[in-house]
Batch of 3 targets.
Target 1
Amino acid sequence: MPFLSDTLSRVKPSPTIAVTNKARELKAAGKDVIGLGAGEPDFDTPQNIKDAAKAAIDAGETKYTAVDGIPPLKDAICAKLKRDNGLTYEPAQVSVGTGGKQILYNALMATLNPGDEVIIPAPYWVSYPDMVLLAGGTPVAVECGIENSFKMTAEQLEAAITPKTKWLIFNSPSNPTGAGYSWDELKGLTEVLMRHPHVWVMTDDMYEHLVYDVFEFCTPAQVEPGLYDRTLTCNGVSKAYAMTGWRIGYAAGPVELIAAMRKVQSQSTSNPCSVSQFAALEALNGPQDFLAPNNETFVRRRNLVVEMLNAAEGIACPTPEGAFYVYPSVAGCIGKTSAGGTVIADDEAFASALLEEEGVAVVFGAAFGLSPNFRVSYATSDEALKEACTRIQRFCAGLS
């Protein structure tokens, strides 16, 4: 009998982590590599949050906590959801996990049975389909092309729903595209969902505070209160608060679902790190004044990257509404040969040759379910971005 689980054979390692690790290996070997693959801000965690963590350690808050979050943090999450999103939740409706990824995974593990379908707009965060597969469900990708600004239309959602559909996973602003849904765009989707009461909504709002220009964030249960009882609103402190390593995510939803997620967590990781929970408490309750200047930096970087990539031969790069990614098309490069002799058969070949020949690490679009594209994270210095985009321009100019 085989030793490894058949379930494990259905999934693959995270391509974004693989690209980041490859860039690190090349750097360690002495190669001049600029990594644009990692999805984390280059800002330091704000000092008040670090101070709160130190105070928690000094106060002895280093023991086991409640399985899915300390009461003060749950209270802070309820207050945040009311303040920012107009959503009313009680602490019994809140779950805190070890990062946003665990929150999503717990929900899928708690609800999916073999044959259950989960609609996932593509391009998608690489982990969504594999988490669905691990939980025994069937991911249903809906391709949302550049012609629709990488957003799913109401007609596409309607066509994807079947009697087996259990969840829609909704992410705005999006990883990998940065595309954000306006109130009206989201209203079109929620009207479809209201006609299909068996479909639940899992929102990934991790980039809520990273929105630019005139775009205003909104979330499904906020747009359509009728969805409240079948929506799991997920968020965390990783991105906006520059706390990726602290590993705190949270969700709010129906009591029965939260209880089921708690059961999964109780038999897997148990409570999130106690010190990280107190840091997250300060993040949500403390000053928010650093968000605006951080976003100004991201807007400057976004504009720089979009302009320079659109100046590269064969690349078309839309301007996103939020997050810290762009998702340019390389359709104009497919079929050509690089200066180093690599045939650019697809976006994976493009990304591989770009790394080998110019030392720029990006993630190829097929990993996110939509080609031919690649993802750039502009959460790094202006200098690194300028140099990386200059190399990409040079690489594209060398295609023949």
Target 2
Amino acid sequence: MTKYQQSADVVEDVSGGEFERTPVPTSKLKGWKSFIGMYAGEHAAGTEFMIGPLFLTAGVSAFDLIIGLLLGNILAVLSWRFLTAEIAVKNRLTLYFQLEKICGKKLVTGYNLANGILFCFLAGSMITVSATAVGIPFDMPMPKLDDTLPNGMTWIIIVIVIGAVISIIAARGYDTVTKAANWMSPVIVLAFVAAGIVALSQLGVGSFSDFWNIWGDGGEPFPGQTKFTFWHVVIWSWFANGAMHIGMSDLSVFRFAKEAKAGWATAAGMYVGHYMAWIAAALLYAVYLKSPEALSYLNEGSAPPVAPGPMAYNAIGVLGIIAVVLAGWTTANPTIYRAGLAFQAILPKLSTAKVTILAGSVATIAGLFPAFAMKLLGFVALYGFILAPFGAVIVFEHFFHNKVGILKNYAEKAKLSFNKSVFWAWAISFGLFYFISIQFDVFLSFVTLPAWLLCGILFLVFSKYSQNKNI
């Protein structure tokens, strides 16, 4: 056994095997099958039951939805493969430890806090999704599209129970998270396929033209919703997981990969989840929109609720309930795991299990408030816009540090706790493009890539003129 392997084993004993502040040793690397299961499980999951219907509320056309998603998801897979996975297998560090080396402890603490909280809010929306299924046997009133607060004690109890179970699973570490995804994902994928087929039958679809005409040329968005065009669908689906790929959060996942080629495994999530499952979920909502209840909402000028549990139950019965519950879990589990890693970077003296339970508790509280799930399209766009530019710092340093002539991991080498080059690069790019979005009513996902590119370029420029090359 080498000295490196011996020290890695010691770290594993201390950290519970998660290697938060050390490279993942060769003995712990995982094959591509682990990543296919995790990504298929995570992305054919709870968010899909919400996002598919929300596209319909945004008035998308058939072409915009079907072709736009095809293109947007290709761009997401390429981002994971050639950026995230490529860097992850070179360094084998978590996002949080990598950023600490570049940004400094104080600056990365603020990032980690924001990242962890946003992850918790996302996980909370998935707990909300699962709760809509668990509440069916209890005849629980479902949250409406414009609901913000809990709608009753039954809702509160169900959310707390689901959140506790999810948190315990996530706290058991990466291996347990991936195993849970591998167990659950086949059931969820089968349920999405079955639900889509049943929905097509309920809609009377007998040909491809009938299928196309479900969305047709699109229409006006529901009250309070943004109108989606082709480019809205492409760009939004590309950056729906922007914080994970161009934002580099999934360095924490792909550091366990044997090769960068494992990045192609994300296609399982994109085309099973973000393509087939989104469309299947949209079909379920299309069926619901023809019901007397939905028509009564529309006649009153309000948006019908988007409740995944009842929609899936209407299509495939008890299997639908089970699928929605599991779908919420398979998204919330790795999301809470990531949030736990973010909090662990702030509170290094606490074990990974303890900080993950903390993250799960925050997510459960967020899950009590339906607004996070009902406004998921907007929340995900904001989430990616805030966090993705920090990933540009890692990407631009990794690929261009030699050409520009800057030192890698400068904060670590210069013993800086706050790297001003990183802060001002992010602050300027964020402030400029957020102002453009608000002032000119530009959809936030449209300015995510420009903000990301500007942040990376400014980081290189500021670093070139501020770094002390003699350290």
Target 3
Amino acid sequence: MKKNSQEVKHNCSFCNRTITIHSQYDMPIYDPQTGFAICKNCIKDIYNFIAEHDKREEKAVNRKFAESLDDILAKNKPHVIKEYLDQYIINQDYAKKILSVAVYNHYKRMKYGYTHDPKDMNIEKSNVIMLGPSGCGKTAMLQHLAKLLDIPMAVTDASSLTEAGFVGSDVEVAVRNLYYAADKNIERTEHGIIYLDEFDKIARKSGANNSITADPGHEGVQQGLLKMIEGGVVEFTAQGQRKHPEAPTIKVNTTNILFIVGGAFVGIEDIIAKRLKTDATSIGFGAEVQNKNDKPKYNSLIHKVRPEDLIQFGIIPEIIGRLPVICTLEELSEDDLLKILTEPKNAPVKQYQELLSMDNVKLEFEKDALYAVAHKAIERKTGARSLRGILEDVMLDIMYEIPQSNEPRRVIITKDCIENHTKPEILPLETSKTNKTTENN
């Protein structure tokens, strides 16, 4: 057989071997002007060296983080976490205990994963589902928790997420939000907390509410969240545009990200009551006679929620299996709201008092005025989240007028100010009292 006269050969600049070129893949890198070239075997070797280096680097980072976990665990025992939350959140003791234990166990799971062979045992994540009415403190509790632990946390509205192919945000946006909350640090991102708010809004429709039209925000979104919540590599674009081959992507492993989902789950108390009534139904002399007016209250029902109630509500069983910890919060009473106004470290009343003290003004709220604020919040059915708005409405004119003079004064907010928007009482503050207040501060 005659040798092909058109056969092309070239030397690799790395290994100096003479390579017979059959296709561009035999010599993937070649510069005809300088003659610089790298053969495919050298490229494979370079890739393997880089991959091994990355693995060593990753192990070193994991080792460093595993060492820091001992310090984190020692400082953040469940009772310590709860005591910290007590300073900012009124009541909700049951929810505080559940979250404290869930976070502590999550860090212990991470330590186990970094110090043991994954073949030994796989400890599942303590992902949490939170149920509670609007304004009961779900988001506030998590924000203070993230602050204590010094880890990034991102809140994403689950109702804005859509199934792939629909207009809206892909499920990966939750991880991207955490990436930016962690200042684009992938290591911190992979050890943060993702809170999916309004999770009840993506419950699948069933029964009488079933839709025959496309459903971009329900079961498909829940299916899309499965792998992410369980733990896996999520890929997203940095700029937030839809993924396509040309767009550079960022990869984040969600194995050690704690997922907490929450929502009001309006109507779930009826599902719980119906199940309890069915369970308690009996026939005969021992049957319990119930009055039609004896309707159990929300707070007595919500703590009895079971996974089957959530499935009945519209959360798919696969998601429930990945959210083993159920955290329930109670409705806030008028007395609870009164405490929220004045007792926590960052209480709204304390904030306004601090702001006005900078203008030599002592701000006082009569007790009836505080009750009027709490009563208004109850009427609005928005819980603690409306307290600040009610106070802001009342304080607007005062905060506008007060800076016009530096004279020490005393401002008293009465019940009439809250209910009828009358002007508060403004009195001169004695110099001796001012000096005394300054000394105390």
